[in-house]
Write a structure and sequence with these properties.
Elements (H helix, E strand, L loop, with lengths): L13 E10 L4 E9 L5 H14 L3 E17 L3 H13 L1 H11 L4 E10 L2 E9 L6 H18 L4 E4 L13 H5 L2 E10 L1 H8 L3 H19 L9 H11 L7 H4 L3 E7 L2 E11 L11 H9 L11 H24 L4 H10 L1
Parallel strand pairs: 1-3
Antiparallel strand pairs: 1-2, 3-5, 3-6, 3-7, 4-5, 7-9, 8-9
Length: 345
């Protein structure tokens, strides 16, 4: 086999957009956001969303849960034996927690979920992983748990360290239901006059389009637990700028836009149950990534354990700005194509 040849770093254009005003229980700040993308219209579009949400008073964001998952696959002689093993595992939670903590200073077992299919045991483990996105940390912890179970049960056979119900970088329902990564909701109320002046639309048009395009259209397409216009665009640009595993936009982009009319104004929200980001780990040693994380204040030694959550919040608020701007543009015939023609042709 030929030796792998390392090439010079790939160059992806990036720019700062914003500021985005973000309000949480822990901080309220105006933040400039780095986005790296070849789709150049994404910058002015997301920037427009940032501007109008700032004028509206800012975006409120809430972290609902924070976990990383890994699932293991074991084979029992029959379903009865599989059930006995699962019952034993459920009763021995303290031993599993100690095993997980022995694998890392930061890993903790949060929960476990199992499925039995015939004689097969699918065990989905949930971990907290500090400021790391947690892929490797969760895999190492899951391996130690798996070895413990195999040592205690001679009748079991190893099949796989990953059982596909994690679910990593694949579209699934289970991630939306049980969560994987940071589950973040970002929301804003935009006065009707700001919609008219800066988005060239009305709250009613945006609500109507969200129902008929994002929700009904996605339903007709057979989408799984998702209803949005282009979460993946902003997430990818944000992930590349901050040194994340870009393939995680597969589950990350499974999210829902919800809109309402509130006292004639527009309530606009994005729910992203699977934002997978870390402020430490592989990729974070690159100079441009360090600079971007520092600029976002997501590499702060005073906030160990909170840096990755802050990063996920900023990602969700960026998604909201990009989604809002695109939906507003789509309510006006010809507007989207004019912008792409002007900026890319």
């Amino acid at each position: 086999m030929a030796k792998l040849q390392q090439l010079s770093p790939a160059q992806i254009p990036q720019t700062l957009i914003g500021p985005i005003k973000i309000i949480t229980d822990d901080f309220s700040e105006d933040i400039m956001i780095p986005l790296a993308t070849f789709e150049t219209p994404l910058w002015p579009s997301t920037n427009r969303g940032a501007r109008v949400t700032c004028l509206a008073g800012g975006i409120s964001a809430t972290v609902i849960s924070d976990k990383m998952t890994r699932s293991i696959l074991l084979e029992a002689p029959d379903s009865r034996c599989a059930k006995i093993v699962i019952d034993e595992i459920s009763r021995d939670r303290e031993s599993l927690e100690n095993i997980v903590m022995s694998s890392s200073r930061f890993a903790k077992l949060l929960n476990l979920h199992f499925e039995i299919v015939a004689n097969l045991i699918y065990l989905r483990l949930e971990f907290s992983t500090g400021d790391a996105s947690g892929h490797n940390m969760a895999t190492l912890a899951a391996e130690k748990v798996m070895n413990f179970i195999l040592e205690k049960n001679d009748s079991l056979n190893y099949l796989s360290l990953s059982a596909n119900i994690c679910t990593d970088k694949k579209v699934s329902a289970i991630n939306g239901i049980l969560g994987r990564g940071k589950h973040v909701i970002a929301e804003v109320v935009i006065p009707a006059k700001l919609c008219s002046r800066h988005l060239k639309t009305t709250p009613e048009k945006v609500v109507d389009l969200n129902i008929k395009k994002n929700l009904l259209g996605s339903n007709l397409a057979g989408s799984i637990r998702t209803g949005n216009a282009h979460f993946a665009n902003i997430l990818l640009a944000f992930y590349l700028a901050t040194g994340q595993d870009a393939a995680n936009i597969v589950e990350g982009s499974q999210g829902i836009v919800h809109t309402e009319i509130r006292n004639n104004d527009l309530y606009f929200s994005v729910t992203l149950p699977n934002i997978i980001v870390g402020s430490v780990g592989n990729g974070k040693e690159l100079d441009f990534v360090k600079k971007n994380l520092d600029q976002l204040d997501c590499n702060n030694p005073q906030n160990i354990g909170k840096n990755a959550q802050r990063l996920a919040i900023i990602a969700a608020c960026s998604v909201l700005c990009g989604e809002l701007s695109l939906l507003a543009s789509l309510t006006n015939p010809g507007d989207l194509m004019r912008a792409h023609t002007k900026l890319e042709r």
